[in-house]
């Protein structure tokens, strides 16, 4: 029996090595895609400079493309290649977690323990690559709403399990990547008013909210979760789902009222409140939660904290400065 177990373990190790090697192509694709993004940004900056110099004589060329069309964000040949090579599905395949028994066997072998870490790194890069794809591909290119929703439920369940089991113990990069991908994914589902989102339960929302408590030290993860909740909140408001909208409002208020909360996370929550409750049909929930006076009571602490930490705001400097100039 021992010989059979060793043989079985060897097969699993070998198969895992092969799977990780296959993932190398995706990692290279992700790196190439990021390189393209960098080149694209440099080109845009160059175009902006040219436009400033010749503003009296001509209209800026960057205003030409219709950016409502995903294909307009990148070269049409690259877009066609992404679709033709089915990189979305290949990326999804690389996000699947190892079975528990396989991961345990790999960890128990000195020469294969590193494979588990490499596999999780491949998953992280795959989720980041998916996030890039969500920015540029339309629904038809990524399989339609049903496929997206199935991936949403599967990945959200995996995220909750991962965060609940280990918090950020060695998994911060993976959790950050998953939340980034889910942020892009839920944006697609909300944009097409996918009907199944209306069946979201309060318990499911609470599991998502809980991630901000488990990962409270990571600004990026909490910001991703708040943006996910914001997109869901906009959908709930549009569908007049008042009970779910109340859950969203309560969560965002709790973030604003958390004395230990990072000011950047508070800014995300305040921005989300403004987006979710922007329409007139949310007035009933606003009054029910007493949201306006509660936000008004919380903002002085936010402004004080923002001024105190103004040198450490990073990419949130512009957003927080807007709130300081135009108080809620």
Describe the SSE topology.
Layout: H1 2-53, H2 76-84, H3 87-93, H4 100-107, H5 113-136, H6 145-166, H7 172-191, H8 202-214, H9 219-238, H10 242-257, H11 263-276, H12 283-289, H13 291-308, H14 317-325
Describe the structure.
The protein has 14 helices and no strands. Helix 8 (202-214) packs parallel to helix 10 (242-257). The N and C termini lie far apart (70 Å). The chain is globular. Residues 20-68 have low confidence and may be disordered. It has 328 residues and is mainly alpha-helical.
State the shape.
globular
Structural class of the secondary structure composition?
mainly alpha
Provide a count of the helices.
14
What percentage of the residues does DSSP assign to strands (E)?
Answer: under 5%
First-residue to last-residue Cα separation: 70 Å
- Write down the secondary-structure element order: HHHHHHHHHHHHHH
In terms of per-residue confidence, which ranges show pLDDT below 50 for 5 or more consecutive residues? 20-68
Number of separate strands: 0
The biggest beta sheet reads: none
Average pLDDT over all residues: 80
Radius of gyration: 23 Å
Helix content: over 70%
């Amino acid at each position: 029996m021992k010989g059979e177990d060793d043989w079985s373990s060897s097969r699993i190790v070998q198969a895992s090595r092969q799977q990780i090697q296959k993932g190398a192509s995706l990692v290279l694709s992700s790196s190439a895609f990021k390189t393209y993004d960098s080149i694209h940004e440099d080109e845009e900056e160059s175009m902006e400079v040219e436009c400033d110099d010749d503003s009296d004589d001509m209209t800026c060329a960057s205003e030409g493309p219709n950016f409502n069309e995903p294909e307009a964000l990148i070269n049409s040949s690259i877009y066609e290649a992404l679709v033709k090579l089915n990189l979305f599905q290949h990326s999804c395949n690389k996000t699947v977690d190892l079975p528990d028994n396989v991961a345990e066997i790999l960890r128990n072998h000195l020469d294969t323990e590193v494979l588990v870490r490499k596999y999780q790194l491949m998953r992280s890069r795959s989720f980041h690559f998916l996030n890039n794809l969500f920015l540029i591909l339309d629904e038809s290119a990524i399989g339609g709403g049903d496929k997206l929703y199935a991936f949403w439920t599967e990945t959200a369940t995996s995220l909750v399990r991962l965060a609940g089991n280990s918090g950020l113990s060695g998994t911060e990069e993976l959790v950050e990547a998953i939340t980034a991908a889910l942020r892009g994914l839920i944006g697609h589902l909300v944009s097409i008013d996918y009907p199944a989102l209306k069946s979201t339960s309060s318990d499911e929302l609470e599991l998502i909210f809980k991630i901000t408590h488990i990962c409270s030290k990571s600004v990026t993860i909490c910001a991703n979760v708040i943006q996910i909740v914001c997109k869901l909140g906009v959908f709930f408001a549009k569908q007049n789902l008042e009970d779910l909208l109340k859950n969203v409002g309560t969560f965002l208020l709790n973030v604003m009222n958390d004395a230990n909360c990072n000011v950047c996370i508070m800014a995300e929550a305040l921005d989300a409140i403004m987006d979710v409750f922007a329409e007139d049909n949310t007035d009933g929930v606003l009054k029910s939660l007493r949201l306006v006076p509660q936000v008004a009571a919380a903002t002085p602490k936010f402004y004080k904290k923002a001024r105190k930490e103004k040198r450490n705001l990073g990419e949130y400097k512009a957003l927080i400065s807007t709130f300081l100039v135009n108080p809620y």
